[in-house]
Amino acid sequence: MESMVDARGLLCPEPVLLVKKEMARLGGKGEIRVMVNSGTARENITRLANSQGWKVTVHQQGDETELRLIKQS
Amino acid sequence: MDKGKILGAGVVVGVLALMLVQYGNPANMGFCIACFIRDIAGALGLHQAAKVQYLRPEIIGLVLGAFVAALGTREFKTVGGASALSRFVLGLFAIIGFLVFLGCPLRMVLRLAAGDLNAFLGLIGLAAGVAVGVLLINRGYSLGRAQPQSRIGGYIFPALALTLLVFAVIQPAFIFASKEGPGSMHAPLALALGAGLLVGILAQRSRLCMVGGIRDFILFRDTYLLAGFAAILLTAFIGSLVLGTFKAGFVNQPTAHADWVWNFLGMALGGLSCVLLGGCPLRQLVSAAEGNTDSAVTIMGMLVGAAVAHNFGLAGTPQGVPLAGQAAVLVGLAVVFFIGISSRPVLQAKQVAAKDLTARQ
Question: N or C: which end of chain A has fewer CB within 10 A?
Fold first, then answer.
């Protein structure tokens, strides 16, 4: 199942925390779309996701970035 | 993830800090954001402590370096509107805590590297403050979302830095400069400015942040930012040994006092305030240079806090921490904790729906 996290405009470490909670809510696998608008949040979330075995793809949308986090099993 | 960038930044910051001291900065004060903001407050006449007045080019360079780096990577973005006044107050108390200890987290690392064991008490205090802040964050603390703003607003802070640079070069009579004391000790302008520019660029690229390092380790067991912290510590430690300036002990350390309780509590106040602000003073400067106007307001709070610390006699001295300073730390801890426990995200339903309004036009 897919879910969505809007982390735009939030201060460190809130974006990472939101994503971490969402990962736990999904039982550690699935697909999460994350909206961010700062380089710091993008890097921090990517780092968290990679460390937990999630694959990250980045889609730049103007001033905002959509991160797609996927973990199959 | 690749730690090369932050390790490299840490090593360069460590080397530059030692070099600035060799060329004239006060001992263990190659870089200290809190001390330098205090000196700038003095230079502008916001306080009259004659020994700590100097327009530190390191800060100016740092802001301009981070600004250029953010422009170059298209990360410059004007945002703001997330609890600016709360941040002003957090910045104000953060710097009071740091000036009671006598250094920001960056100088704490440099002091520790040179053998000043008082900084170890500071480190424990900083970590304790950050840990309390993490508890508050886990309880749902939030200053809310920053919104995009008109681009011009983000240029104001770098423009202020540029204005200060003009003052630093032409040295008009209304800018104060210490004749003696720490404010009179400084590396040559070009060197200090260059070092600041380089650190600004590296800090913007690597997201270097001392408070963030401890925070991310507690929250996520993530060691990325902590690695930068460690790199500065190790570089400055080896450098101090090589230069023969390393001196382990508690007493007679340069610009420091040996009051355990207030070294601990001062840094605890700074750490708690900064984790609620999202980063240490260095990170606030970089963020302000990237166009975050809330961070710029935070720096203004620090500037006022530095002035208050000296006008009201709160700052630590080599003899210890004045009673007024002790009281200010306790008041600060209470105020900051209260902000931390009562700041909550504003519900979407209560926010002004700007999109609906524009649709009707």
Answer: C
